[in-house]
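Forum: Protein Structure Q&A
Topic: Joint prediction for protein chains with partners

I've read a bunch of threads here and the consensus seems to be that you should model interacting components together rather than docking separate models afterwards. I'd like to see that in practice. Below is the full input, 513 residues plus whatever partners are listed. Could one of the regulars post the assembled result?
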Amino acid sequence: MKGIDTVAVLDFGSPSARLLARKIREARVFSEILPFDTPPEKLKALAPCGLVLAGGPEGTDHGAAPRCHPGIFQLGIPVLAIGYGMQLLLQEFGGKVRAAAAPEYGRATLKVENPEPLFMEFSGSTVEVWLNHGFQVEEPPPGFTVLAAAAHAPAAAVGNHEKRLYGLQFHPEVTRTPAGFSIISNFLYQVCRCRPGWTPEAFIERTVAEIKETAGGKRVLCALSGGVDSTVAAALVQRAVGAGLNCIFVDHGLLRKGEAERIRRFFQDEFPLNLVVVEAGERFLKRLRGITDPEEKRRVVGAEFIRVFEEEARKLGTVDFLVQGTLYPDVIESVTRDGTVKIKSHHNVGGLPPDLKFKLLEPFRLLFKDEVRVVGTKLGLPEEVVWRQPFPGPGLAVRVLGEVTPEKLALLREADSIVTREITAAGWYHKLWQAFAVLTETRSVGVRGGKRSYEHVLVVRAVTSEDAMSADWARLPYDLLDRIARRIINEVPGINRVVYDITAKPPGTIEWE
Ligand code: XMP
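Posted by a regular:
Agreed with the consensus. Here's the joint model:
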């Protein structure tokens, strides 16, 4: 981002790069993730105040091991190299590194021998770290000194102060290294002399100015879903273009209980925007009639959404820009474990007819999800909007198993609303990635009011997750589960059995369809 000190993070194909990039931003320095083989010229053009080599695959001694360009070390940019990155750094400067048979991580206690500058708060003491035992530093390169050592890692942190090059055999970006944030901050502020400029206020100010410059006085269109990304994007763009922003909210009739009304009221009364609400529930239900295949349901909802959106967009006349809630993880070229670079396909306007010629406005293309939330709060959006749990685009169509009918939707809405209310009342809403109900096609026998019943089985699903790539089922208290089940069976005729889903992802997915 222009005018803000930046640190470049080279990605060698492990989650380390993203975690490091986020920690650096938490320390208020902007970070950019670049592929491991970024040429020196590109790096020079970016002019970062520091360079971080992230962790990566096991060892550097096989043909496919990703290697950075040696020229990057000649630019005079301070380097912090972690794990795999440390191996590359030390080898480049003539050190000796020996690979262990298998990668292994574990806790270790480091004795700080040379505290300045990375360990300055830990002079004469020890630090607990998450160590990479996959290799051993046999001999640091000439000019490098040992900063900290562990029993089985005699050179767990090394540095060449003159050249401002540092290598860590442990991972400062993970929570298992409690001192990690201080160590990263010391690199940023003591070694690189970065200025802290990455704040939500600075992001808002610059982005608003940029949008004003590109789209001021033009007509901008935004599809509002009521979710975090589109809501915060609309709020930010409105700050820049004011009445030039037109929002369309397509109510596909597949939302949770009271949701459509809540969204309409919010954008009319609390956070007024130019908003068109399209009531399209009947159209969607008609298209979904008779369809039971999950993928087909998703396709039908997606295609109908585009059709409705397009009709409304045409009514507005010429539209110059379309707002997209693209996030940074969608934009970075991710490096896979085998070292190849995978270019992520943007989930953008695919499907809109080519004669609707919008330019894209992607105000969050540099942000992680948690940063979008912070920006939302700074823009004055309420907690319950900014901290909403994710909700799938196809809505309840993928939570009503089998054919989607108005009757089944009504049952699911009632049950789901009880799940949400009880989870919220018990203080669990913000501890979970998602909690919701799924209506199955299975019916079971029960007894209601002394009579035999034969009704739907409902699933309660509650998961914890960092990023939805993996998830675990939430260990909700038994009495909370009990309250949920009793209320649903008592208050929702048509459901006579409630089960709790205890499947992790993988092998399951979060949604059922
Ligand atoms: P799965 O079921 O794949 O879901 O484990 C991962 C996360 O993505 C959400 N999800 C969707 N979000 N459109 C969306 O915007 C979709 O079609 C969609 N399908 C799943 C899901 O709720 C979970 O948070």
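The chain has a mean pLDDT of 93.
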